[in-house]
Amino acid sequence: MEIEIGRGKTARRAYGFDDIAIVPSRRTRDPRDVDITWTFTFRDREYSFPLPVLASAMDGVVDPGFAITMGKLGGLAVLNLEGIQTRYDDPAPHLDAIASFSKEEATRKMQEIYREPVKPALITQRVKEIKDGGVLAAASLTPQNADTYIEAALAGGLDLLVIQGTVVSAEHKSTYSEPLDLNAFVRDLDIPCIIGGCCSYQGALHLMRAGAVGVLVGVGPGHACTSRRVLGIGVPQCTAVADAAAARMRHLDETGYYAHVIADGGMRTGGDLAKAVAVGADAVMIGSPLASASEAPGRGYHWGMATFHPDLPRGTRVRAGVKGSLEEILLGPAHENDGTLNLLGGLRTSMATTGYENLKAFQKAEVMVAPSLQTEGKFLQQSQGVGMGR
Predict the structure, then answer these.
(1) Angle at CA 165, nearest 5°, toward 257 and 143?
(2) What is the CATH number of the domain that holds 193?
(3) C-alpha distance across the termini of the chain, in Å
(4) Entry pTM
(5) What are 126-150's pLDDT values in tens digits?
(6) Range of the structural domain that residue 116 is part of
């Protein structure tokens, strides 16, 4: 439904995770019978992950050791190939420094650290380190640098490429430089590509038509992202994901190929993951919840890929803390009652409680606009700062 903003301008109402609730169906299930496996195919090759979770390609979240641990747990971690891991032979002292900065000096001093150029040899080395750990190697490049660094990544044995930016379109225009021909690049690459971000039906559809096996949906919802304030752009995640899911169905009708929708950002709890799937996501990408794992390289801090942009930073360093091990955050056991530990247990139990046996079935769940969901009956929790009142 469109709302009049003023004469001559109308707008759609959009919804985020806190605006909706999942409605239980007529049946319930045993959580042990629920299948949360995420599977996709690329050129007759099947890729299957027991956990439908990707770790964001952010320097405070993923390094090779973290990627190996997450892969062995059943998820997929994405390494930032233009980050601190590929600028320095030994990133540790620079990560220590980032954790030590005051909030007033953090952005400026991080810009100084990231002035060190990316080294192709380190790209190859880092990808190989992940491969040597016995898991799939996934990594990200921005569109403007994909052509420059892809060969170094492939030389290390890269299995999956994420082409990622604040907004990535299938039709980039520039009178100053030759833009990446996304269609040709993806077509000629013999590994699957996930592409994003996007937050609209048309944006998602055109990335699918460019050959993406999956699209990242999310512009500005991340806990460390400031794009919505700096640029004024974005769409709340539930609406963005639902629109992309509609594009997925049109693309399936056109081509017979199912391109996956990956909700990227804005999720903190198992309930948020469940809502992302219920409105149409096939998998999720998360950053700040995983930055609080003891294995994360950020020393309890988290920052986005645009935090250190030399001209217009669109991110900030935030304190995520250290909540537990990566296994505890993803699979439990939980020693907190706010949904931030055992995220996949929360997803699985939500699916079981509402009666759905797998992710595709759960996408058909009924949802309601529920503005009182976070506050109804929660006065004592809010006043005491516990549970949902934190």
Answers:
(1) 75
(2) 3.20.20.70
(3) 33
(4) 0.95
(5) 999 999 999 999 999 999 999 999 9
(6) 15-389
